[in-house]
Structure formats: structure tokens, C-alpha cells
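Re: weekly structure request thread

Next one in the queue (357 aa):
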Amino acid sequence: MYNQSSIGSFASTTTVAKPNPMNDYEVVQPPDDSISSLAFSPAAIPQTFLVAGSWDNNVRLWEIEQSGTSIPKSMQSCGGPVLDVAWSEDGTKVFMAGCEKQAKMWDLASNQVVQVAVHDAPIKTCHWIPNYPCLMTGSWDKTLKFWDTRSPTPMLSINLPERCYCADVDYPMAVVGTANRHIIVYQLEGKPQEFKKLDSPLKYQHRCMKIFKDKKKQPAGYALGSIEGRVAIQYVNPTTVKDNFTFKCHRSNGTPNGFQDIYAVNDVAFHPVHGTLATVGSDGTFSFWDKDARTKLKASSEMEQSISTCAFNHNGQIFAYAVSYDWSKGHEYHNPQKKNYIYLRSCFDELKPRPTS
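Done, posted below.
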């Protein structure tokens, strides 16, 4: 089903490899520039595939074997840096969006790519919604659009209060975070429409967002990460005031003088089985958390560069994270000699909630 013709088309990197501080599996032939997005294939197909979007304008696809071995399968080039990637629910197509102001659909069986969305500014997020079906795109042109991939015009265009910085979809809920700390929750049943508009509980710029489910496996709220080394856990309909809270993460332990280095939270992801979560940051670490017990389950060693994005596979056995510069310290700290990495970690047991005494 998957095209093998471009196995040899991945560019190779010759820089000296950094020792892997967590001893995780290393994905071969990683992107040549900062890695913006990772996504695993859905449960609908028996194999496990991983796609990565990068600022080198390419989207790469690997097959991940049970042994942890990664096999490069194919690559597609876009007309600009790729900011987000997403899968169709049947695992036959990959969507990719970014700075060329377009979203494209990559049919993996035919290896053909077609444009399926367009905006007036770079597209920051793309999400496939199988219930319609349609592609949702959020852009820096301050719009959220829904696309039937067979039509060049959107099914629906919604004006946002500011540029889209992050978004997530778990039917029947969508949540969008924009510049100036706006949060908009949409209900998707019937026709997408605004359900609630909120001010962020965080004081600084949003960086990432993921929806979480309740015990009935229904979308109930979202985690929101920002540049201030803090994550907010927000229920859309909280039962008590104490349900919503924020916690600090990706910060140094501080100095005797009381100073503390604070790093951006670049991505958050919820474990698909346990409901616990992972955060990754500009400090080059990942952490696993139990939001219900409000405890940290695990913290990683520090990598040589930032961790820019992360993802769990569909059954929660694999945690993927990308080590690449996120430009949080400006261009003067960018070292093109430093290789980008994607690591795979066997994580199922580490993310189990601890039993309560």
C-alpha cells in the first residue's frame, strides 16, 4: 500500500551524534531542520507509522517496528516550512500545513499530493474531523476554516479574535488558542459553532493545547501550555472551582538568590489509555504527569537542545519526542552543526497513575 520509491530520498546528516541521555530508540534519517510536529498512524491500520513535519520544508514517514527499529518509507516536500501534520482516520492519508499558506493531502497509496486548503497567511494547525468528514485549519490570518477535500472553497470560515497559535479536536469538541491569550471552545455536532469564549488562565503567550477525556471517554477539557513554564488544566464545564488549576513545569530549581530559569512548554500530549500527560519544553526535558493526582510521575534527563514536539502512538505504548532547536533563545544560539533527533520511548508503565494509598 505504501510507496517505497523514495526510501533513499532522505537527506543524510554527518554531524557527530550526541549520546542519548535516556537510552531511547533513535529514529534514523531525521529532518535537517527544526521539527515542528509529530503524528502516529491511527489504530485503523495494523502497522505503526510516524510522520514528522519540519522547517526543512519536508514531511517524512517511517514505519516503526515492534523492536523499536525505524524504517524510512517516504518523504514529501512542501513550498515552505511545515508547521503541522495530521492523519486521516483510516490511515491512508496525511495532511500537512505550514508557511506556504496551504494545506495538502498526501495519499500514501498513490504517493500523490493535492492542495486541499488555502489561507491568506501561514497555517499553524490542521486537524482531520472524520465525522463530517473535513479538515479544520487554523491560520495566522485570524480564521478557522473547515474543508471538504473535494472542494476548493471552505465549507465554513470562522473569524478568530487573533492569530491561531494552537488548536485541538476531539469530536464533538474543538478548542483554539490565539494571540492575546484568547481561548475559544467550539461544539462540532451538526455544524461547528462557538460554545464558549474564555480568557486564558495563563499570563503569557500560548504555545500548545490538547483535549483530555473524562472517565466516560468523552472530551471534557484541555491542557494549555505557555512560554512561562506553566500548564493550565481547564474543564469546559467544571463541577467545582477547584477543578481548574495551573502548575509550573520546565523551570530550573533556582539559585540561592531566588532566580529561576523559566522555559517554554512546547507541547503537551495525553496518554490514550491512562489519561496521564506528557509535557516537553525548551529546557530539553520531558515530564510525565498525573493531572488528577496532581503529581509528577517522571522527569527526563536534559537533552542537548530543546524538545520541540511529542506524540503518543494509538495504544500508548510508544512516546515519540523531537530534539531540535526551537529558537527560544534567538538566532545567536542556533548551531546548524547540531543534529536533530527523534526518539522513541517505551512508556506504557511509566504513565500509569500511581495507586492511591
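Residues 1-17 have pLDDT under 50 and may be disordered. The domain at 34-159 is CATH 2.130.10.10 (Methylamine Dehydrogenase; Chain H).
Next request, please.
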